[in-house]
Amino acid sequence: MTPTIQQIAELAHSTVAGFPEQFRTLAREVVIQIADWPDPDFLADLGIDDPLDLTGMYDGIPMTEKSVMDPGFGPDVVWLFREPILAELREREPEGIDLETLVAHVTVHEFAHHFGWSDADIATIDRWWE
After folding, report:
1. For residue 23, which of 78, 74, 101, 70 has the smallest C-alpha distance?
2. Spatial distance between the Cα atoms of 85 and 52, rounded to a whole number of angstroms
3. DSSP sequence for 37-91
4. Separation in Å, CA 9 to CA 67, 100, 130
5. Domain 5-63+74-125: CATH architecture, name and number where available
6. 72-94 pLDDT, tens per residue?
7. pLDDT tens-digit map of 4-40
8. 9: helix, coil or strand?
9. Taking the C-alpha atoms of 89, 36, 111 and 67 in order, what is their torsion angle to the nearest 10 degrees?
10. What's the DSSP call for residue 3?
11. Are 56 and 79 in contact (CB under 8 A)?
């Protein structure tokens, strides 16, 4: 049975609920959105040709760069993309990776960007994507 957008959303929200209190508090203002596919504008902005290469995205201003002088453009958003996640899940199933683990990993990665970490920072401690 193919997981629905709602099921992936529930897994992402459960992941955030499991953050340590200080991070859970900082994550409270971020909206989690699930879509089947990334928007073509997201792909173009990131220079990504294959939509299967983007499982998630942080859309906002990292906390380390926010200022009270920033204009209000709405809440920061963590996007998770169902079809790319499911494609990666199929690739990783032989490794024993399940949907809950994969969604949690993508969710944590995107929230790390909200907290101010770059991809390079994340890569120093996270060898998942190798």
Report:
1. 78
2. 8
3. S--HHHHHHHT-S-GGG-SEEEES--GGG--TTS------EEEEEHHHHHHHHHH
4. 29, 11, 26
5. 2-Layer Sandwich (3.30)
6. 677 899 999 999 999 999 999 88
7. 999 999 999 999 999 989 889 989 889 999 999 999 9
8. helix
9. 160
10. P
11. yes
Rounded CA separation 60/98 (Å): 28
Mean pLDDT of the chain: 90
Phi then psi for residue 62, to 5 deg, are -55, 145
The separation between CA 114 and the C-alpha centre of its own chain, rounded to angstroms, equals 10
Cβ atoms within 10 Å of 94's Cβ, excluding its own: 7
Q: Specify the residue for token string 């949690």.
A: 104
Where do the domains of the chain lie?
Answer: 5-63+74-125
Short-list 69, 57, 68, CA closest to 114: 57
Q: Which residue has the tokens 């683990």?
A: 101
Q: State pTM to two decimals.
A: 0.88
Is the distance from CB of 80 to CB of 109 less than 8 angstroms? Answer: no
Q: How confident is the model at residue 66 (pLDDT cuts 50, 70, 90)?
A: confident
